[in-house]
Design goal:
CATH topology of the largest domain: Quinone Oxidoreductase, Chain A, domain 1
Radius of gyration: 20 Å
Shape: globular
Structural class: alpha/beta
Number of helices: 10
Strand content: 25-35%
CATH class of the largest domain: Alpha Beta
CATH architecture of the largest domain: Alpha-Beta Complex
Largest sheet: 7 strands, mixed
């Protein structure tokens, strides 16, 4: 079968499209899936150069989230699941035509989502849920600022914040991204220059900041929080973690909250299942739907990685595995 592999941590240039061994036959409780689509996330890019906290053993196949159909089932798996369309999540390994995984690691794909949307759904929506609802304690009527609001993670936060009754302000780097943020439910949207961000117009305005960008945006965004504001640290697409001025936290009673949705589910599997059920329900209700900015066939996955690395892609990049 065809798939992507990387044997040295040299970034996108180290990726190779190759004939890979077929996945193992499904054992008890396992299934083999024909992958339909895989969506890229920023950790996929970081792993190519060893820049992410999880480092798979080399060589490895990238890919954290996708959607596929069950081709074969191991002992203990109901035969009527053959052909079922399932959401697939893993720490890596999905960017191939077929994979074998435990059935317990899968869940049915919401019928409201296309294959591309289903592939791109879980990571963003789950991070938004754990960040805004579980860690950020967002309540109806609160004022939410979403940075990087035109990317997959930010758009999920915009949509979820709006669905929860928050007043959502979205900031992004291009007009196309702002259009997507407005379509996702943002009440206010504005352009931001990551190289020289000026957020002085928003000083002391917000109750909660959702930040997957970091870097030079951190300090200006911190100043937008009011008394007892909460700052959700999601990631550092915009640069390395900045120094935190503790005196500002003290003066305004600010909380800095780290958000790792995947790790939360690994440490508390029951809570992880509740979080997944919550976002799946919202998808079925039409309240969460990822925006797809790029779709390419499996053999052109490098193009998707490059588009994501450039930082200008609105929405998510999806690689079709069934073409």
């Amino acid at each position: 079968m065809k798939g992507w592999t990387i044997g040295a941590l040299t970034g996108i240039g180290g990726l190779r499209f190759a004939d890979l061994p077929e996945p193992p036959a499904p054992g008890p409780g396992d299934v083999t899936l024909q992958m339909a689509a895989v969506a890229l996330n920023y950790p996929d890019l970081l792993m190519l150069s060893g820049g992410y906290q999880y480092r798979p053993e080399l060589p490895f196949t990238p890919g954290m989230e996708g959607v596929g159909r069950i081709l074969a089932a191991g002992e203990g798996v109901a035969a009527d699941l053959l052909g079922a369309r399932m959401l697939v999540g893993a720490r890596s390994g999905l960017l191939a035509e077929r994979v074998t995984l435990p059935l317990a690691a899968l869940r049915p794909a919401p019928e409201t989502l296309s294959d591309a949307e289903a592939a791109a759904f879980t990571v963003g929506a789950l991070t938004a849920w754990v960040g805004l609802v579980e860690r950020g304690r967002l309540t109806e009527g609160e004022r939410l600022l979403v940075l990087g609001a035109g990317g997959g993670m930010g758009l999920a936060a915009v949509a979820l914040g709006a669905a929860r009754g928050a007043q959502v302000t979205a900031l992004a780097s291009t007009p196309a991204k702002l259009d997507l943020a407005r379509a996702a439910g943002a009440h206010e949207a504005g352009l931001v220059d990551r190289a020289a961000p000026d957020l002085s117009a928003f000083k002391d305005r917000f109750d909660l900041v959702f930040d997957p960008v970091g870097g030079s945006l951190f300090l200006p965004a911190l100043s937008t929080l009011g008394w007892k504001g909460r700052y959700l640290v999601i990631g550092f697409v915009g640069g390395p973690p900045p120094r935190v001025p503790l005196n500002r936290l003290l003066l305004k009673g600010i909380e800095i909250v780290g958000v790792r949705a995947g790790e939360a589910g690994r440490r508390d599997p029951a809570a992880g299942r509740r979080h997944q059920a919550a976002i799946d329900r919202l998808a079925q209700e039409g309240k969460l739907r990822p925006a797809i900015g790029l779709e390419v066939p499996l053999g052109e996955a490098v193009c998707a990685f490059r588009a994501m690395a450039e930082g200008t892609l609105p929405g998510k990049a999806v690689i079709r595995c069934d073409q």
